[in-house]
Amino acid sequence: MMKIPEWYIILNPMAANGRAEKLWPKIEKLLDTVGMNYEVVRTKHRNHAPELVTAGTARGFRKIIAIGGDGINNEVINGIFLQKNIPTERIEYTLIPMGTGNDWSRTHQIPTDYRQWIPQIAKAKKIKQDIGLLSYFKDGVERQRYFTNVAGLAYDGYLCKKMSEKKDFSNAIGFLWITLKELFKYQLRPAKVIFDDQEITDRFYTINIGICRYSGGGMQFVPHAIPDDGLLALTVAGPLSKWNIIFNSWRFYNGTIPQHSQVNIFKTKEVRIETVGAVPTDVEVDGEYLGTTPVKCIVLEKVLTILRP
Questions:
Q1: Which of 83, 111, 170, 211 is the most buried (most CB within 10 A)?
Q2: In whole angstroms, what is the distance from residue 74 CA to residue 234 CA?
Q3: One domain for residues 63 and 200
Q4: Is 288 within a domain?
Q5: Could you report the per-residue pLDDT of 13-22, keeping only the tens digit for each?
């Protein structure tokens, strides 16, 4: 039987508006220069990466690298936990960041310049990270999705749904512009948040559940998130006025959101969000729109082995 290469690379050619594919010849040359033995496959459509992970692990690959942004990162993580070929604890994973937001890599201080990161990968640190598992509804059917960064509901879910329909942004500034523009169209929806021995019913501006702390290109809606503490970081904000949100938008980036009087933060192992009234609440994870409430989220402790500087 022919021996497989050491590294299995999953490239999203559309990442950063096609930049990943354009740079691949240079990335390939650097991989060869540093002596990495690898095989590369490309995603051809949305949610193709889980299929590629399953195919790779069936052949015996245990070291996986994704090239792209937070979207491909989420897809590969789901592939790792959905495949049944190799125990997940035997898989090592890292990302060569090449997306719009690069939020997961920001938490782990992975360089966005592939020329800095690739020479370090073979000798990188191995750490364990928690993973979130979220159940939600789409088209009346309950579904599940793993996530490695942040799940967002209310305005976050609505915005993600709108952004999936748009292609007129390519950086954090563009994301912020769309965030503020869509804000004036959004109608607050009531929901119920249940965790530990607490229930909070309100018309929420945002509900965020974090494994890691960054989302939306560097925003910190869950600045208290720690990726390996076995807990979900929960942030809820009630019916803030739109101008209040705009005047406090600087808090999105510097981690001071919890200091706002109408924002509350918690830590928990499990949280449920239920629909109140006729209209459900939208939900996204890692920047990918999923569906609506009712939602349940749990944390899986230190189940992912990642490589980082």
A1: 211
A2: 20
A3: no
A4: yes
A5: 999 889 999 9
Please, which pLDDT band fits residue 172 given cuts at 50, 70 and 90? low
9-66 pLDDT, tens digit per residue, is 999 999 988 999 999 999 999 999 999 999 999 999 999 999 999 999 999 999 999 9
Specify if 231 maps to a domain: yes
Residue 233, token pair as written in the block? 């970081």
Whether 287 and 271 map to the same domain: the answer is yes
In this predicted structure, what is the pLDDT of residue 132? 98
pLDDT greater than 70 at residue 169: no
Q: What CA–CA distance (Å, rounded) separates 187 from 207?
A: 15
124-134 burial code (b ≥16 CB/10 A, e <16) = beeeebbbbeb
Task: Identify whether 135 is part of a domain.
Answer: yes
* Residues 175 and 288 reside in one and the same domain: yes
pLDDT of residue 182: 86
Query: What are the DSSP E strand ranges found in 44-91?
Result: 63-68
- The encoded tokens of residue 32 equal 């060869």
Last residue of a domain, one of 62, 92, 123: 123
What whole-number distance in Å separates Cα of residue 188 and Cα of residue 262? Answer: 15
DSSP three-state, residue 26: helix
Whole-angstrom distance, CA of residue 32 vs CA of residue 226: 35
Cα–Cα distance between 140 and 292 in angstroms, integer? 9
